[in-house]
Design goal:
The complex is a heterodimer.
Chain A lengths: L4 E3 L6 E8 L3 H9 L1 H4 L9 E7 L6 E7 L5 E7 L9 E7 L7 E10 L2 E9 L3 H11 L8 H13 L1
Antiparallel strand pairs in A: 1-2, 2-8, 3-4, 4-5, 5-6, 6-7, 7-8
Chain B lengths: L2 H11 L2 H10 L4 E2 H5 L6 H13 L3 E6 L2 E6 L1 H33 L10 H7 L6
Antiparallel strand pairs in B: 1-3, 2-3
Helix pairs in contact in B: 1-4
The chains are: A alpha+beta, B mainly alpha.
């Protein structure tokens, strides 16, 4: 089973994420750009995802809304820069609950035999923006656990 | 956890020597001399690092006889870990769902694209943990 690697270095307003998928890059790219497919996987199962618009082209806008079990809604929106392709999807990302705190994201899909290595880089306007985004934007139940502590230290040690 | 405290903890963690000190302290408390031993830096330099770690709440310091003992305080690290764990869980779960979708697509079982997206997402509510 593949694992999503997330690196958030102290003091640098970026998050880098890598993940390998057992599928051709065109398919992984399609799952990221076809709203009918996106809605089937983006976000945890207990958050409903509704896509308002998803104009996959240079200058195209996108917007979707997450609804939790209590009926709270969280809107996100942005714009595609350049025509999205498996070589790169470049887009802005903004949580409507914190307008103006816009993040620039770029995703690439590299062929690895029959598999695909996806790498996304998110650049925030400040470390504070990044930390707040991670802390609040994707809020869910958290399980505190001792093993996570050891994992974090190992990860920080290796960086 | 307040963002300013998070910044303080991250700032303290930004230095490789301070991370190595924390890793050593995860095995048990130690004196300044013991902490300085593996590094090519002076004890006063180590003391400065310990001060930064103490200000971030990552360690506590006590005097025993003539030696100053440092001890790891796990809570701030646990909070930082929880901070990242939320994000990690969001994407772990999304990508596991994407794995399933990609497998289904390759098996030729692609879903009807005309299906109502909201209904799709809501339909899996009963599978939540």
């Amino acid at each position: 089973m593949s694992k999503t690697e997330i690196t958030a270095e102290p003091g640098i307003p970026m998050i880098v994420m890598t993940r390998e998928f057992d599928a051709p890059r065109e398919l992984v790219f399609r799952a990221h750009t076809d709203p009918d497919l996106l809605v089937q996987w983006l976000g945890p199962r207990d958050l409903a995802l509704t896509i308002d618009r998803y104009e996959v082209r240079n200058g195209g806008a996108w917007r979707y809304v997450n609804t939790d079990a209590e009926g709270n809604t969280y809107g996100f929106r942005g714009v595609f820069h350049g025509d999205p392709s498996p070589d790169a999807i470049v887009q802005t990302f903004e949580f409507e609950g914190a307008p103006g705190h816009v993040c620039l994201q770029s995703a690439t899909f590299d062929k690895r035999g029959g598999k695909t290595l996806m790498r996304t880089v998110s650049a925030f306007q400040s470390v504070e923006d990044r930390d707040a985004m991670v802390a609040s934007g994707m809020e869910r139940g958290v399980h505190h656990s001792g093993e996570r502590l050891a994992e974090l230290l190992t990860r920080l040690q290796a960086s | 956890m307040a963002t300013d405290r998070l910044s303080l903890v991250f700032g303290a963690l930004a230095d490789p020597i301070r991370r190595a000190i924390l890793t050593r302290l995860a095995e048990g408390e130690a004196t300044v001399a013991e902490l300085a031993a593996p590094f090519a830096v002076s004890q006063p330099a180590i003391s400065k690092h310990l001060k930064v770690l103490a200000q971030a709440g990552l360690i506590s310091r006590n005097r025993r006889a003539t030696a100053r003992i440092s001890r790891l305080e796990a809570e701030p690290l646990r909070e930082v870990t929880a901070w990242l764990a939320r994000y990690q869980r969001f994407w772990d779960e999304s990508h596991e769902r994407l794995d399933d979708l990609l497998a289904a697509m390759q098996a030729g079982e692609e879903q009807d694209p005309c299906r109502d997206p909201a209904a799709t997402a809501k339909g899996s509510d009963d599978e939540q943990d």
